[in-house]
Amino acid sequence: IESDNLLGAAIQCIATRTVNADLHRTVAGMFASLSECNECDDCLAKLVSGGIVPALCNLSRGQGSCPEIQANCVLSLANLCSNEQVQITIYRQGGLDCLLDSLIGGACNRHVAIGVRLLASNPNVCKAISTNESILTQFIFMAKHSFLDYQRSASSVIGSL
Asked: Do 88 and 125 form a contact (C-beta atoms < 8 A)?
């Protein structure tokens, strides 16, 4: 990742104003594959420090975003949230907001629920959540949702506050 600056090049590709759906789909898939690196937590930390979270958020919310792109972005965020070392950084870079924005889409419910639950398991993230009313409103929405994984994630977070 570092030697070839692959991450930087991929982020530059999606940062351009030109919407290229095929390129965005390819980059989202690449990010999902990179985030599934089980070799070591350092790989995930390098991705986060390299700026993957804002890139995923922009790509997920982007003009040319489609369900496949959004699903890959949410999968990537959920995988990244499994690393305790970077959870607070993911929160600060907008990862939780991006996951919660994906609640409405429904294309990737299970990954949204897992990502939210993993991220909110961090005491520092949980403390930040407790002071943000707009985020708390979204957790109440999740608690009332018919999707059981949303209910479980919301109850876990609300119970930790």
From this structure: yes
